[in-house]
Specification:
With 228 residues, this protein is α+β, with helices and mostly antiparallel strands. It folds into two domains: 22-157 and 193-213, Gcn5-related N-acetyltransferase (GNAT) (Aminopeptidase); 158-192, no CATH class. It is built from seven helices and ten strands. It is globular. It starts with 7 loop residues before the first helix and ends in a 15-residue tail after the last helix.
Length: 228
Amino acid sequence: MNNQQPDTMSLFSFDEHEHTTDLTTMQTRRINYQTAKAIIEPNHYLGKLGSTVVAFGCFIDNEIAGALTFGTIPGPNAKGICGEEHKHKVWELTRLYIHDWVGRNAESRFMGEVFKQLKPIAMQKGGIILISYADTAANHVGVIYQATNWLYTGVSIAEKVVTETGELLHSRVASDSRRGMSSAGLERIKTKPKHRYIKFIGNKTQIKDFKQTMNWEILPYPKDNHDN
């Protein structure tokens, strides 16, 4: 007689998403700031969302599974990419998060769908210049950007500013006059370099113009075995 008890853990620890995610059910939709904040801030390693121009949600079977957000950058930084003429077309990809249960290749698929939805907006703006960074401090080299055909333009050396309350802010945020901020007289701390990627959204003529006016050289993708 077999007196072995059933494995109760296997009966009651079932993950409803395990082995069930079908990426063909993925939908990409515009979402508001509060919806993006609710999924990003508890889950993304950087935490705080910050200012956002536009946000997109990743939905699986009508359940939100991730979010991607874009924001603007200060004029002098934006001008440095493709010049004064195009500085108002620059958006930074500020946050990207998708739950692990969605599975492999979900981020690149989601990002590709976002690019499709950005295309009509780009046509109205005369094109969009996207910039994003892969954080070397987190052992990232930007595999997701490489998988979605961004242009690699080297590393960006930045610094953070210690505010009077002890908060650490990126120097460009602490110096953003649009927010009534100034970093004059505050302590500055050098940060680890970040890999910098550029993506152009628009028609062939707009993209050709961006490439011709870009101030940075296009370089081979960096490689690393520790990227997520």
